[in-house]
Specification:
alpha/beta
Length: 605
């Protein structure tokens, strides 16, 4: 949510910043802007809309500098507009700021500054940072820029990642972080600040991860780190293993399609990771001391948790609760030292999930995270962490990261079941072998792309689409419905098949599409009964799963899946639903990688 990029070095900062902003588009935004240090202060260009509009403005107002900051904004305070876009300047044009997060006390700051003759030009909370920084710089003239930033951050309440420049110190770029991600990249010709690795991957794979309440001071010659007492901090330079190509489309029309097609490799790499870095966190957990599992997450990660509940309860015979992280943080959850809280987040920076983690830890619970980003807040603060081997996921709607989360959850459940003696050694090996076979079976599903694309072309006119399933199929139906809503803007809902008669069937009429998932063999008769119920009311049905005894007749169509144990079937059925959603959106000509109103990483509440 929002994106920051900054550069100081020997090269022209402007094309580097624009390139970085393009790599951050997936985070979601409605305006963009850039500010660079020039001889008489700052050169600033800001524009509502897409980056292409900003680039057009820059043709008319060309900028050149060796230091600058850029930002893509997702509106929270103040409507999308040129004035509310970042970077924000103080009224004396001495300080320029880009900000991700929310400043909760910005009104108090504004009320302090306005009587002093300071004029605000936007309706954002972020401008208060620039105005306060300028006020402090003028009031405390003996301070350097680092002193000023420390005074400002101590006065702020809320969450923030900041990039700050001062016209009176045109060689220094300051970055500071609290509850919002920010990395520092270094290369031979300069230094970078960025919200995420893809923004700098073209130039360097060497990064520092800022921790909360740490400040970085960047010049063309290097970077220094400090705490809020202005004491030096030693940081470890880390090497990112993602390739430059992994953040490119690679010939696909959209990142989402590329990432769907990458899933066999991602599944294979994630399974293999259990033999490496992911082995120790799993083996170190004493599951015999745990009497309850709580899985908490948001969005698709929450849906992965719902699937996992069925797996853990079936083979581990342990109580599992699945909680939306946004609700967990406020419900006074019943967890203690005998509870393991599993946190799932692609970015590792999801604000609600971070808050849930801290709440759980405060109550004495053990925490285990499943994330995709090394160095993220959740990865660093959780007691144990498993990393998905998904690489950068650029499309807003998750696909490959979701599938990697599922695989790690399967393996975790199998290992816990073995430790608890709920399954035999032989059964453990059989289940792990089936999980290891998933990449090849996922590749088989992807061979059906043409038939799925053809079916999707008939779905564009549907105004209501329902997903139904029984047991674990219902769990994955939640993800299928969410994926369709996210990128195609078609109204869809997911229901447990047995609940149709309790209200939902009232919505089924002519020209309603019902997607029925049938990966749970022992309940096949039940889902077939549900199909008959909706078909008799005029609905068209797409079955995903076993096509045995299903005869396509214009009412019922079926996309088959390779044979797999029912507890693992969501890993295959979800691929079909991802492709269905993708092609429905493509047929409507929508912006698939950057759906309206959505952000990749929700780093504010």
């Amino acid at each position: 949510m929002c994106g920051i990029i900054g550069y100081v070095g020997e090269e022209n900062a402007v094309p580097i910043i624009i390139e970085g902003l393009k790599k951050l588009e997936y985070r979601g935004y409605d305006s963009a802007g850039i500010a660079v240090c020039v001889e008489d202060g700052f050169g600033v260009v800001k524009q509502k809309g897409r980056l292409a509009a900003l680039e057009e403005r820059l043709k008319d107002q060309p900028l050149k500098s060796r230091m600058g900051i850029g930002h893509t904004r997702w509106a929270t305070h103040g409507e999308p507009s040129d004035e509310n876009s970042h970077p924000h300047l103080g009224s004396r044009n001495k300080i320029a700021v880009v900000h991700n997060g929310i400043i909760e006390n910005y009104k108090d700051i504004k009320e302090r500054l306005v009587p002093k003759g300071i004029e605000f030009s936007s309706k954002t909370d972020s401008e208060a940072i620039a105005q306060l920084a300028e006020y402090y710089a003028q009031k405390y003239r003996g301070d350097d820029l680092l002193d000023t930033v420390i005074r400002v951050t101590r006065a702020l309440e809320g969450s923030f990642a900041l990039g700050i420049m001062c016209a009176d110190d045109p060689d220094t770029l300051i970055a500071v972080k609290k509850d919002n991600p920010l990395i520092i990249g270094v290369c031979e010709h300069g230094q970078f600040i960025a919200s995420d690795v893809p923004a700098v991957l073209k130039y360097t794979n060497k990064v520092y991860y800022l921790s909360d309440n740490e400040i970085a001071a960047l010049t063309k010659d290097g970077v220094r780190f400090f705490n809020m007492d202005k004491e030096p901090v030693q940081k470890t330079l880390e090497t990112v293993t993602w390739s430059v190509d992994s953040a490119e489309k690679g010939g696909y029309e959209h990142f989402m399609l590329k990432e769907i097609m990458e899933q066999p490799r991602v599944l294979r790499d994630t399974v293999q990771s259990i033999k490496g870095d992911n082995k120790e966190p799993i083996e170190s957990i004493d599951v015999t001391s745990i009497d309850k599992l709580v899985i908490t997450a948001c969005g698709s990660a929450y849906n992965a948790g719902v699937v996992a509940r069925y797996v853990f309860e079936r083979i581990c015979r342990i109580s599992v609760e699945v909680e939306l992280a946004s609700e967990f943080r406020y419900k006074d959850a019943v967890v203690d030292e005998k509870t393991l809280v599993i946190l799932i987040s692609q970015s590792g920076e999801t604000a609600d999930t971070i808050a849930a983690m801290r709440e759980a830890k405060a109550k004495g619970a053990k925490t285990l995270a499943i994330v995709n980003v090394v160095g993220s807040t959740i990865a660093k603060e959780s007691d144990s962490c498993l990393f998905t081997a998904a690489g950068p996921e650029i499309a807003v709607a998750t696909t490959k990261a979701f599938s990697a989360q599922l695989v790690l959850l399967y393996i975790l459940a199998v290992r816990f079941a073995a430790k608890l003696s709920r399954i035999s050694r032989e059964s453990e090996q059989e289940l792990l072998a089936e999980i290891a076979a998933l990449p090849d079976k996922a590749a088989q599903v992807l061979k059906n792309v043409d038939s799925i694309q053809k079916y999707a072309s008939t779905c564009v006119g549907y105004k209501n689409i329902f997903f139904i399933g029984r047991n674990i199929d219902y769990a994955i139906a939640l993800e299928g419905s969410l994926k369709l809503k996210e990128i195609s803007y078609v109204h869809s809902e997911a229901y447990a098949g047995g609940e149709l008669k309790h209200g939902a069937i009232a919505l089924v009429e002519e020209n309603t599409l019902v997607v029925a998932i049938s990966g749970c063999g022992r309940l096949r008769g039940k889902i077939m009964s549900n199909i008959e119920q909706v078909a008799s009311r005029g609905a068209k049905v797409l079955m995903i799963g076993s096509c045995q005894d299903v005869h396509p007749d214009g009412i019922i169509s079926c996309i088959g899946l390779p044979e797999v144990p029912e507890l693992l079937s969501p890993s295959l059925s979800v691929i079909v639903m991802q492709l269905l959603s993708y092609y429905v959106a493509a047929n409507k000509g929508l912006d698939i990688d950057k759906p309206r109103n959505l952000a990749k990483s929700v780093t504010v509440e």
